[in-house]
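Problem statement: downstream parser choked on a complex file, so we are re-checking the raw output for the heme C run. The parser issue turned out to be on our end (a line-ending mismatch), but while we're here, posting the original submission so the record is complete.
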Amino acid sequence: MKKFGLIGMCLTTALAVGLGACSSKAATTTSDDAATADAATDTDATAGTDATAGTDATAGTDAIATDMSGDVTSAAKLASIARGKYLIDAVFACGVCHTPKGTDGKPDMTKYLAGSTSYAFPMPDGTTNIVNAENITPHAEQGIGTWTDAQITNGIRKGVDDQDVAFWPIMPYPEYALLNDADVQAMVDYLRTIPAVDNVVPADTVEPPAGVLEAASAKDSDIPHTTLASTDPLFAAAERGRYLATGACIQCHTPEVSPGIANFKMAYAGGRQHKATADAKTATSTNITPDATGLAGWTIADIVASIKGNTDKAKNPLCDASPMGHGWMGDMTDGDMTDIATYIHTLPPIKNGPFTCYAK
Ligand code: HEC
Ligand code: HEC
């Protein structure tokens, strides 16, 4: 359950850059329709290999089973739950924000998805706002146990809670707006099956004024396409990769126009800063477009190895702000990693950087 949501995001955005980055409800409806139309294409592109992901968990799907709420669950529902687990744990790594870290710096799995990593936002007026990733387990009071499917879907895709209060777009909902219906439903189905954890997440530091609206959904046309010709044998893989990277990679690797709002003209060009918890070091993402300031000289296999191992081209470990490697995005299927790498490798190059994760 949310306590406080977005504070004057629209207000600060307007102050900072004078852009209409906040949608009205009416505008949101329009862009949703567009997103749904795009998603239809994406569904086709992701069908097949992706749907087989997480097959371990779907073992015995032919049998009728019972989920934790006691409902009789069909084979289709079990497949959706397995897909949801794969998306949440590996592809989108929701736990990077929603599972707290233990004293050893590793995710505390006794509080799986129970919140909270907090994010410190420097505000245009010089103050810092602390925003906490919520408890998204099915706990009735602390989590989202009482939310309907539609409310959880709205949370993921539109960034509004069960009381229609907007979230900060540190939660990448502007990008998740472009995920297809089946994938969002899969995540909802899976979230209903995880243990409810009674973990209280601290309130955000600033209360939202009444009537604050959520950040606008990204549009499909905001997301760059591969430079490959549609006749290229790798084109289909790159387009599948584009769909996955929109949810998994673009937010961190794209600079902002204002707090939480991506500058898609610089998509994947890096330089976005993250500061998890007020006392943490500020991490900067690298340019992953194939420019000399980015990944020029890397092969598709180099990028796959980087996702798998959370390492750079010379196999040195990346900083702890990068969510790749085993336990997170490195647990994607080889097929999905290769699709993402094919897309990243063939993006339009953008000169920006180079950046170092933590300034020396
Ligand atoms: C970069 C960090 C980050 C990632 C990644 C992230 N979230 Fe969030 N999420 C947040 C924050 C922060 C909030 C609370 C925002 C606020 O309070 O304004 C939140 C809120 C939510 C809420 C609303 C919960 C409530 O009680 O209000 C849901 C549902 C949610 N996230 C689901 C997800 C799912 C599913 C994923 C992965 C597909 C995900 N999140 C990925 C940071 C993140
Ligand atoms: C939570 C934020 C975050 C997300 C999400 C994220 N990255 Fe990164 N990534 C970083 C940061 C920060 C670095 C810099 C690490 C360093 O320099 O040590 C980085 C580094 C990299 C590098 C190494 C670049 C180099 O020059 O050595 C590659 C490749 C990369 N990311 C690709 C991806 C891909 C592909 C995805 C999606 C599957 C992704 N990243 C998702 C934050 C993120």
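For whoever reads this later: Residues 189 and 351 are 41 Å apart (CA to CA).
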